Protein 1
Amino acid sequence: MDVMTCLREKVPGEVFDYQVLMDCLSRYRKPRDAVTRLLSSGRIIRIKKGIYSFGQAYRRAPISREYLANLIYGPSYVSLDYALYYYGMIPERVHSLTSVTINRSRSFDTPVGLFSYRTLPDSKYSIGAILDSISGTSFMIASPEKALVDKVWTDRRFSGKRLSDYKNYLADDLRIEQAELDRLDMEVLRIIAESFASLKVNNLVSFLSRTEG
């Protein structure tokens, strides 16, 4: 059995790790040389150290970049600008797949795009993340409410000290329509705000409560 047949039998999706690759190369005298040949021929792609995907000719489905974001650097989940775009809350397509993590902020420029991660303290990290899926591939992503709170809290350009600042920030800077804000669950927002214990986030909730409906 050749290595690509082995990989396709072992890997149900489109992404696999170094150990699976080595299992399929176990009969080779120089498996590292075989990996180099697989990469140079485009049969497999190295996303980052230890994480690979099938090349275009061997894929059964598109690669889920959201799932990859969870794998590349963790613990993490998709949030911030990309999540806001994912939910249709902001109009501009976001090219960098943004996530939050409890580890230090980092970025990874990969063959399938740029992945960036912003740090959130433990106490602000866990509440508001949900499990979603695309075409059967599951991944962790912020809820719409959590994505907005994460964005506001991490945006150093915006102080959020006055309630009156939020109208222009949400409408002009982020370009979120009022109809999208009306769809947010205020109770979920309040629960998330409690975990942040932040004047900036509390002001966001207060502003949205006043404009609700």
Protein 2
Amino acid sequence: MKIEGPAVRLSVFIGESDQWHHRPLYHEIVRRAHEAGLAGASVIRGIEGYGASSRIHTTRILSLSEDLPVVIIIVDAEERIRAFLPRLDELVTEGLVVLDPVEVIRYAGRQGEAAP
């Protein structure tokens, strides 16, 4: 798949300990994005942050948290991202979902190559 030009970045901010059927929620979001045929998804673990609870979660040794912030980032064409949003409705009960317009400079998937 190749994307260039205008696109939308979907960012889903959740906690690392958030679960879906006894599995990490971020894993289920990535699985559903893949199933929906979206261009790609990345999960990024934060080192510090807080959300609606105003409780700071951090990796600092004296206050080591087991619920660090996690963001799942997905970039694809706007219509594909918007079509995916209903699939998030049942998954994200606490968290933040953000859409940003972006411009993709270059994205080209490997064609005919096996992943390393």
Protein 3
Amino acid sequence: MRARNRDSEGKPPPRRRCEGAGRRRIIFRLLSVLLIPLLLLTAEGMLRLRRKWQAHARGTVFWTEPDEYLGYRLKRNFFTPDGRAFINAAGIRGDTSHLPEARGRPRVLVIGNSCAFGAGCYDTEVFSFLLEKKLRSEGWPEALVFNAGVGGYNSAQVRVYLERELWNFRPTDVVGYVGWNDLVTATWPFYVPNVQLGPAFHRNQPFSLMAKLFDKSELLYLIRSRWRLFNNRYLSPKGGTDVWNEKYIRDFERNVDAMVGDARKHGAEIYFIIPPMDLARHPRYYSLEGYSYSDSGFFRLWERFRRILVSAVPRDHIIDLPAALEDSVRDTDVIYDYNHLGPRGHIVASEEIYRVLTRNWRKRRGRAKE
């Protein structure tokens, strides 16, 4: 029997060798099938960890502490290392007289990002301080202006901050200076503010598998963004098509509408500032490392954001800073980089906000008398 199972040289029949090789191929294919999702999950995990580290590193720049809902917030009772700003016990920029329990009326609440905070300027130079000073000298001696701007905040963080905490200040009027971080996120695929909200906020969101897969996946976002960049640079017939991520434009519009509805619910008037910028000085890597579009494309995107703000509130509730600053944006005392106001820019902003607010107050007073 043994002699029949071997050839003249004592080797096993070829069929047995084929069976062993076939089993190895099946095992290899199974391992390959398992390895692919493992590699994808590993890549997704590494990208998420990198994002979280970037968000944390960005937050430390703005003298912050962690927050479960907002991602981070300003440190309380804290002088910034540059000596320009004091953060009071309520976690907003201003002295100890600017707390929720402070008495006074009207009560103006400024919300937004580093432009609202007044990055780069001293407490006595920012428009919130100058606005309060002007109101008190022009017939509103008990006026209070609270500066709740936080460097790096996008519109989602501003909305959540307003909903969860800022109504404790009982504002009669809210001034929103939002949009820049959302605008750059829509143009630069790897800009950090789209991941800054805290874990408690995300845990309380409705679960949707498809939304988690397509909207939350860092890996799919990376692939889509790199494809857009490749298509824009090399496949476009004109050598570059102006594109951006529509998701962040829609998010911005929803956040703005939510803030308007929240203000209406609390009986407050809400105003929005059109953000000024110097297009010639805005960082080129926002577009070159993103979708590689032109300066005119960046301006057209800015126009989209401007239209969202203008359509969200009555026209007399829009504070048009670009129009107020006109051709002086190149002056570094007006805008010291590309979008942050310098000392003279804050003076102009305070005067324009004062004009819009007091005009509406007088209108309301006249209607009340009727």
